[in-house]
Amino acid sequence: MTYSEDDLLPLSGLQHLLFCERQCALIHIEQVWAENRLTAEGRIMHERVHEEGRESRGDVRIEYGMPLRSLRLGLIGKGDVVEFHRNEEHADNVWRAFPVEYKHGKPKKDNSDKVQLCAQALCLEEMLDVEISAGALFYGKIRRRQDVIFDSFLREETEDTAKRFHELVESGVTPKALYMKKCDSCSMYNLCMPKTVEKARSINSYLLDAIRAK
Questions:
Q1: Does 103 share its domain with 195?
Q2: Is the domain of 187 the same as that of 165?
Q3: What mean pLDDT do residues 164-178 have?
Q4: Cβ pair 34, 136 in contact under 8 A
Q5: Are 78 and 109 contained in the same domain?
Q6: Which of 66, 117, 128, 168 is most buried by its number of CB atoms within 10 A?
Q7: In the 8-state DSSP scheme, what is residue 79?
């Protein structure tokens, strides 16, 4: 399937979806957003990286805030950093693309950051007609990179997540709240109100059961 320009969704939504489908729907269907200290610090980091423009360091060319797009996945966004390494083994000195995504915190237990980075690689592959085998995630809290290999499993998960993202947005339905510990760090907590919604649902269930028992 190929999407049109009008159907493109923000690439960053893949991470939102993997973190929480309700959060993803609140942002991309209901168009609401709230910021906390963590998201503000992350946003500032991205803005600083994107302001750099471009530079060259010997056999490496660096593009900051590079526009990305994939009609196959239906995604659009920006890559924090795309390094182009000179491939000396190639007779024509072909430049090898290597995407790097900056994250404010530390490595996550799930694959959400890796999927977002892989989606950037898939966009670059489509745009440049190249194959990209790896990239890196730079985490501000530990101040170092984590290499990511774009193997068949990560590529499949990324494509599946993009498909699910489009299906969620096209449905126009925001999933019900379900409180989990990770909700406490979410900037959307006061808009989502997971504990309040769950409590209200429990009360309604209790009243319905009481009525049926009569």
A1: no
A2: no
A3: 94
A4: no
A5: yes
A6: 117
A7: E
214 in the same domain as 118: no
What is the value of pTM for the model shown? 0.81
206 shares a domain with 141: no
Domain region containing 167: 5-175
Question: Same structural domain for residues 158 and 77?
Answer: yes
Do residues 148 and 110 both lie within one domain?
A: yes
DSSP string, 119-164: HHHHHHHHHHT----EEEEEETTTTEEEEEE--HHHHHHHHHHHHH
Indicate the helix (H) or strand (E) that contains 67: strand 60-70
A 10 A CB-CB count for 197 gives 15
What tokens were used for 27? Answer: 């942002």
Could you tell me the CATH number of the domain that includes residue 14?
3.90.320.10
Angle at CA of residue 70, ends 66 and 72, nearest 5°: 170
Strands 54-57 and 95-103: unpaired
> At residue 152, does pLDDT exceed 90?
yes
In the 8-state DSSP scheme, what is residue 175?
P
pLDDT higher than threshold 50 for residue 43? yes
Look at the chain and report how many structural domains it folds into: 2
145 and 212 in a common domain: no
| Strand pairing class (75-86; 95-103) | antiparallel
Neighbours of 54 (CB within 10 A): 12
User: What percentage of the chain reaches a pLDDT higher than 90?
Assistant: 55
* CA pair distance 173, 25, nearest whole angstrom: 7
Residues in the chain: 214
